[in-house]
Amino acid sequence: MYPHSAKKLTVYVSRICPFANRAILSLHESGVDFKEVLIDLENKPEWYKEVNPALKVPALRLPNGKILVESTLIAEFVADSYPEANLLPKDPLERYEVRNFIEFYNSKVSPYFMQLLKLNKQPRDENAIDQKVSELTQNLRELNTKLKEHSSKGPHFGGSHFGFADIITFPFYERLDITLEMLGRSINNIKGLDRVYEWARAIRERESYKTRIAPRQDIAKALQSLSKRF
């Protein structure tokens, strides 16, 4: 039998995985009591097949034995199950704005993480890297505009309130930032990204992020290993 709590939610995660980060952040921020089971992605326990036959993280076991998978769906389940945390707004229009922001991020920013990671090889194609960074910078300026339009004062997408939009997108922004460092590039001193920088800085300072997410050096090590597989 796999490890779990009979009375509490049990979440199976790896702290270096951005998908798993979504689940653990939503649970921590919801205020619910839960059991965390860490999964070594390089040496997954045999029993984990009973939890998720696909062997992916995260997975969330409910006290009744039902197991949920897929990071966005888990985060949404948590948000809806514990509405007092206000991770997702109740108003349909406000929910639309949250989903619209996530859709923009997933289509215009997130793909550059893997595209750039695949360029982390020798010999380096510096021209290809520069082209990708140039494209990314333009899209980040659009992201900056969207953050300002929704909440000019910030620091989060929802202003002072940390929520679903931040939980779903930021783990991938962090890996994008780390990947750029690995390539000898940076997006941390560019005009027109002031709101993005404020957003990133505020999330990194949250208790949930500092205590539940792997340190940057551990994430960088994992990304270096991943890039060698391409």
Automatic annotation (TrEMBL):
Keyword terms: Coiled coil
Domain GST N-terminal: 7-86
Domain GST C-terminal, chain residue ranges per copy: 91-223
Any one annotated GO CC term: cytoplasm
CDD domains: GST_C_family
Keyword Coiled coil recorded: yes
InterPro entries given in the database record: Glutathione-S-Trfase_C-like, Glutathione-S-Trfase_C_sf, Glutathione_S-Trfase, Glutathione_S-Trfase_N, GST_Omega/HSP26, Thioredoxin-like_sf
Residue ranges that the Swiss-Prot or TrEMBL entry lists as coiled coil: 126-153
Keyword Coiled coil set for record: yes
Protein name per the record: GST N-terminal domain-containing protein
Organism taxonomic ancestry: Eukaryota, Fungi, Fungi incertae sedis, Zoopagomycota, Kickxellomycotina
